Amino acid sequence: MPPYRLQTLMEMRARAKEEAEQAFSEALKALEREKAEQKRLEEDLERRKAERKQKVMAYLNEVMAKGAGINGMNMMSRFEQRLKDEEAQVALDIERQKEVVKVAERTVERKRELMAEAAKELKAIEKHKETWQKQVKHERQQREELNQEEIGSALFQARQRK
Hints:
Layout: H1 7-66, H2 70-161
Helix pairs in contact: 1-2
């Protein structure tokens, strides 16, 4: 059988498909990392809120035990405000992380489309090769049949001459 003329193209498409699959896999891993980071930030925020409530209650109990003064209440208010500011910063980090996750999801979708396209192109060239192989096989059979017919005809004519 003659060599397939588009074998190099087929190998290139196979490599492109493998690279697209690898890129898709890496994008999925990146998305999972970003989602895990978002989850960690959300858990941190919840933990901070619970800690703030506990710390404020403990501070309030301490101030009440010593005697509630204006200065003590102001310090408690500042302390609570500082904790709320930290929580607001974490909440802002969560919003930024949500955007990063959205970007990662879009990247995964784009990589999925590229992978599907690469697979489709490889499938097309494989189908072409199958068709070409069938055609070559058919042509070879036709030539063999023609040769057999010529041989048979030559033998018949040789017998007729005797």
